Fold:
Amino acid sequence: MTLKEQYINIRSHTETLCKPLRNEDYVSQPVYFASPPKWHLAHLTWFFEEFVVKTFKKDYQVINAQFNFLFNSYYNHAGKRVQRSNRGGIIRPTVEEVFEYRKYIDEVMLDLIDTLDDPVFKELVILGLNHEQQHQELFMTDLKHTWGHSPTWPIYDQKADLVNSPCGKLGSVKINEGLYKIGYNGDGFCFDNELGRHQVYLNSFEISTALISNAEFIEFIQDGGYQNFNCWLDEGWTWINEQDVQAPLYWIKQDDQWWNYTLAGLKPVQYGAAVCHLSFFEAWAFAEWSGKRLPTEFEWEVAADQFDWGTRWEWTNSAYLPYPNFKKAPGAIGEYNGKFMINQMVLRGASVVTALNHSRKTYRNFFHPPERWQFTGLRIANDI
Amino acid sequence: MTLKEQYINIRSHTETLCKPLRNEDYVSQPVYFASPPKWHLAHLTWFFEEFVVKTFKKDYQVINAQFNFLFNSYYNHAGKRVQRSNRGGIIRPTVEEVFEYRKYIDEVMLDLIDTLDDPVFKELVILGLNHEQQHQELFMTDLKHTWGHSPTWPIYDQKADLVNSPCGKLGSVKINEGLYKIGYNGDGFCFDNELGRHQVYLNSFEISTALISNAEFIEFIQDGGYQNFNCWLDEGWTWINEQDVQAPLYWIKQDDQWWNYTLAGLKPVQYGAAVCHLSFFEAWAFAEWSGKRLPTEFEWEVAADQFDWGTRWEWTNSAYLPYPNFKKAPGAIGEYNGKFMINQMVLRGASVVTALNHSRKTYRNFFHPPERWQFTGLRIANDI
Amino acid sequence: MTLKEQYINIRSHTETLCKPLRNEDYVSQPVYFASPPKWHLAHLTWFFEEFVVKTFKKDYQVINAQFNFLFNSYYNHAGKRVQRSNRGGIIRPTVEEVFEYRKYIDEVMLDLIDTLDDPVFKELVILGLNHEQQHQELFMTDLKHTWGHSPTWPIYDQKADLVNSPCGKLGSVKINEGLYKIGYNGDGFCFDNELGRHQVYLNSFEISTALISNAEFIEFIQDGGYQNFNCWLDEGWTWINEQDVQAPLYWIKQDDQWWNYTLAGLKPVQYGAAVCHLSFFEAWAFAEWSGKRLPTEFEWEVAADQFDWGTRWEWTNSAYLPYPNFKKAPGAIGEYNGKFMINQMVLRGASVVTALNHSRKTYRNFFHPPERWQFTGLRIANDI
Amino acid sequence: MTLKEQYINIRSHTETLCKPLRNEDYVSQPVYFASPPKWHLAHLTWFFEEFVVKTFKKDYQVINAQFNFLFNSYYNHAGKRVQRSNRGGIIRPTVEEVFEYRKYIDEVMLDLIDTLDDPVFKELVILGLNHEQQHQELFMTDLKHTWGHSPTWPIYDQKADLVNSPCGKLGSVKINEGLYKIGYNGDGFCFDNELGRHQVYLNSFEISTALISNAEFIEFIQDGGYQNFNCWLDEGWTWINEQDVQAPLYWIKQDDQWWNYTLAGLKPVQYGAAVCHLSFFEAWAFAEWSGKRLPTEFEWEVAADQFDWGTRWEWTNSAYLPYPNFKKAPGAIGEYNGKFMINQMVLRGASVVTALNHSRKTYRNFFHPPERWQFTGLRIANDI
Structure:
């Protein structure tokens, strides 16, 4: 695919995701961390405007001077911005105007792609497209959170519940003690946090080829896992007690049966599917209860070729920290990843709402230990 | 006007207020106390459904069993409800469905009005219409709050800023010491909190015939009123310091000039207009600074025939408490007023967004001391 | 008693209250509103130093320049001060040094009392003594709060539980409709908030001669009073649910029996004693449940000669607001009362820890509706 | 030294630390994380009582059945306990009673040491002594926090400011790429988190032989380090802005000169001393500003023999996570370390208030990124 085709495809996929939405669905933001669809949509256009168009388009005229303030996410280099928790308060521009903004920038972008032969430009376009794909996933998980916390549990697509993914083949893989290479190694795109390919020494370990299933997780619940402090990290124990957490996110019990909110509405929890919407704390607790442990991100990466993965983000017991020789890019782009390397845990794999080309075994996703609105699950490992 | 005409007129006025809105304007709720338009709209229909239709319409079929949970405001008798702060999270029903709900109930109501000759029914219809009119005002003040805190300051109606109301004739009125009657006395509708007409003994006092103007309030600001603890109640002083309050709500200073957000957009503050959007604390502080005081609600009511009033809610120095012989109605209707008689101060008068027939001198409005998103101002009084 | 005798007696009573304390009891402040004993002790001396000694003692040398910052309570005129919530963090001066400070100022004060014949001086000394007596009560109620929330429920005085006070004679008094005089009228000391003697018109009412007993309050509890929204003001209902309030402060249920923490330790609740440690919300709810209401402060004052009162502060349904012609004194003394006239309700009567000469029927005590660490109870009234 | 001598020495050192305290210094707890001296003192005795005496002393009679509830820190296995934030509310037992408790348990312990020859017993005694030594450090840092936030900045020991420690020899050490062994390897005591000796592969790096000095840190401040978002992790930037952090803890600027509160009172900051009381965020920011980085805990451990260390806890860029083969002990002892392995960063080295035998290069200390009331500093490293 040419860059132009990629641009058109990926940008158009974002619009496809918007199809089921009414205009009134674009704005509400009941919790600070789940941005409304209108904001995602405008921010994705802003990213190209701010980091590509303003640099490469001669005599570029901004469509609206306020958009930089409204739709900058977290780039201090790009100036002041609306607080994350206030994105739902952005009454104007209207949805229609946000689509016009999109069209305006797309025209400029396509013209630049046709006419510019600059490797820096191309690199930034590719970054912007990868950025857009990351937000496509967030668009869906944020929407699910907002809708899943709405008292009427709206339906996004009756045909796609998006949670009944298989666990993979039962069994385990053994990996011998030794030195292994970690980090991205190839010609394609990757994020800066995957670079700095380096060696790590691993002790021998065994890792499951299957994700933990809903049936297994229900066993944990029924065995009193959420009431047994022995299973929990201290901050996890505090968290479940303060937040009254007693099951994965979106699960409710009705008539002695587990149901869960999905984007196809309220559905019975499927026993054979991979458990979903766990926090790190819950994943860790399950592993502890099972007598095993979470793999590290390095163990996961080394073993990943030997099992199927890709419909859950899998919590690892590795903190999100820089690889040796990690380099922060200068300027705003340097804020993309590096400044978040604290207090977050690494997830490996990919989810059902992850863009296909984001499914690479070196990809490092990261969230805070209590967060669970992504499509997160786990597999377990143990020392041997 | 017949009851039917009243019903049609008042209900249709609510829809008129919605005219300038796009669908995406109906849902956001950035702060807990300012409900979104969709919720107001549905709640007003719910009020008739819950308190009239369900009682008087035989074999009534609810259009949606969840609406009682979604659109009950604060009536414990009517069952559980969505928390006030979560009204912005009600994704469904859509705006269209809320209008359909309105139409559905209106048809039932009009049929009942045509066919029923029951004084209890009529009383409840009239209460529902007065309720709707109160919400028409809240609809506007909540909208102004949401839009006025949006970074782009949207315009509702370019021709109606709604704040440049005159102060009234300069001067003052003297009232002699003596016994006066307080409370509603007539045949028309009034709220239960106006009843219990009773005598109060007033000392002699003087009250201004004009509201305080923006020019006067700017003088207070320029004299350091917001920095002078002598002007403030202790809780007011804490409030302005914690919230960093330095001017009336919606005011901002640009290039040494005061501007304010209005529903017609950002406009210069007009010196001659009555000051607007003050908290009780600010009104009290201004009065203290001026060497006078706020009137009590009884002084206001006794003197009200002798000055023009009606474009500002005027803070009084009376707490919102029951009149002698106040009676709480049985059941849900008893929750309308009585349970709020604590920690609030009485406002008298009426604002530019108050329904005309709510402009009666015995009407008791009430808000908490720091609240100022209503169209609030003050006039001053003194002992003589 | 001469002024000197009064000074010696009242000051020495404060020291008597300290007798049962160990040094380590003087400093802890687990909640912001209950000041530690060391702070009370030092503040009382500071009051005389700041408002009397600094004005009337020539060439006065302060014992420690920091004490004004440390022991000023809320007088903005006296300069900056430690935040109320941080009083427990005042490690130094030691308890011994605070007693030395006391002795130092007492010597100056006694010398001034002997030598000065200035009415302004005398007035301030009397104010300081009344202030000290108010704090003697707070000293005890704050101590009870701190100790009553300590896991080991320490004993202050095994012989004095201080809560088993009688309710008074059963029955009621009827007062006829008419004009009554309200406010202090005499030659002795009173606070500024009692002045401005004025007429009020009262409707006929009946008021109980007895306080509500523990037995009656237990009946309210057993009838589900704390679970019945009909009994509560809206903010009261929110308060009991958010704070999980199910009984008066210090009450706990053990083996189906009510106990309460007293300054003599944990004791069974005595059925015949007057109920104690109620918030305004609970007092209001009880009255509502009983089918009657709280009296207003005016009703209470008018009827007070016809019943015994004085071992409970009695909640009234009057907001704490200025009387007509209320005058704020100039300077710091003006901050004593007036600036608190918002969001508080008036209590009349006196408690078992109130100084005797504070037991006058015009005395206006005031607290916020949820507060209940004073020795508070209620009597009920009704319209006739 | 025999176990008995060790026991006597270490226990007696705790009492030595108490010498400068008045009884009223033992109880205040202005912030939840800094426990009061009385609590530390009692908790240390409780540790021996709960984990040793109750197991090994036949027919042991507890001195007070409440002490387990009062003085258990965080052991869920040992039952319910006072919340950490409420330790300052433990009015009783008195200081005297806490010393009696100490004496009571010491007698039992010394008798057991004399008579028991059980390796499990000895292991637990040694753990208890190491625990006591850890708390000796916390006793001092908690005291410094409480006193350093008191408005009068009390003095603990005029001769020991405890912060003017040297930085060590200027220069750097280079370590070659390769496999290194990490973790404790010896016969003495170590904590479970140091075990699981294992290999790690390190890239070549260089590490400074000197700690960062106050002079260097002042240069960072003067260069606008606290105002430059480029230097900070995102959560660090939020933290300094929300908390208004502009210098290390205890520093204040007076007359254009930096002073800091020390346990000897307020003193000028010494330029040549090692910077102290930094959070991880500040240490990270300094390193970023300097163009280098923090070492990992593995780099630190491998290089530690080649530089002097030991008067600062040094922040590393390693998250506190288990080593391979980490084993949690069964029962309460298993709660000692493992359950805290989330959201904390590792510190290596030792401080001036660390017990001598806790200064081993494999020791893993850990705190949350914003915490800085320990004696924390940094050295820097870089890739080569």
